[in-house]
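Forum > Structural Biology > Help requests

Title: Can anyone predict the 3D structure of VOC family protein?

Hi all, first post here. I have the sequence for VOC family protein but no way to get a structure on my laptop. I'd be grateful if someone could post the structure tokens.
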Amino acid sequence: MTVPTRLTLTTVNLDTPDPAALARFYARLLGWDIAVEEADDVILRAADGGVGLSFQRERAYVRPSWPAQPGRQQMMMHLEIGVRDLPAALEHALACGATLAAFQPQEDVRVCLDPDGHPFCLWLVE
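Reply #1:
Sure, ran it for you. Structure tokens for VOC family protein below:
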């Protein structure tokens, strides 16, 4: 398939009832800087560039369930975060305010929940 013009994914947006709080969690977790901070939108960028993270206020936010359960809000997406030391990365994530999800589908991956309940995976990279 030919794309008529170059398209560049610049940012992944997460809905949240408190953009500043969730952005600060991910800034600590990833070691990224806050690039833009407004009342309803906060954007993080890595120092070396790449895709950023944005946190947008959603007043009707409903915490997703993990794993999916019938009749409950399901996650719409999740972040995959590659790590070289899974136990150390998990310890860091928990110290930042994440919780370890009760359901862990793989031995070499740890599913965590951010403070608003968005799942993210820590997985081993070589």
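The two ends are 31 Å apart (CA to CA). The chain is about 20% helix and 35% strand.
Shout if anything looks off.
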